[in-house]
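Render Cytochrome P450 in 3D.
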Amino acid sequence: MIVFMFAMLLHPECQLKAQKEIDSVVGSSRLPSFEDRGKLPYLDHIGLKDYFWRWKPVLPLGIPHRSTEKDVYRGMHIPKGSIVVPNVRGMSLDESVYHNPKSFYPERFLPQPLGHGEPHFASSAFGYGRRICPGLHLAENSLWIAIATILATCNITNTLDEHGNIIVPECVMSEGADCHPIDFEYIVRSRSSAAEAQLNEDTDLN
């Protein structure tokens, strides 16, 4: 989720576009629900496909696996018992697959002419194949509804320095087995008093 906040600070135009899509489909009298998901393609791309899976993968080397039998993959011999480490970052930034891969561009997944029609990047954070994490769909749905609710009710903005200038965080991630943005500050404010009241009512915060 912190990578999502990071992306919204660096790309406020994407935040605004997603909010407009939510407003046109959901309106202001209720919060988004899973029934709305099929009508919110841009939110789906901004919320999961580009930021979470592809743009800044939290596990750049995925989850290592050990081969139970010897195998041959594209002419490469893999002995039994080998530790196989997927180069997730290399795949997610593959220039032969993704146009300008280091940029955060949710429209890349939309079909032409709305976007580039690029393939959805696999959910590398949950592994691959038969041993993929069974909690994948629960985690993905939880992220989607949280992001949809945040964008429907709140604005994510940069902080200001002592002179009133906007502080834009550097696009720097930590290095290691898991990656996250280097510490940064941001502000979350309700989009309106009605949005705040709706959020409080639907989440029983009062």
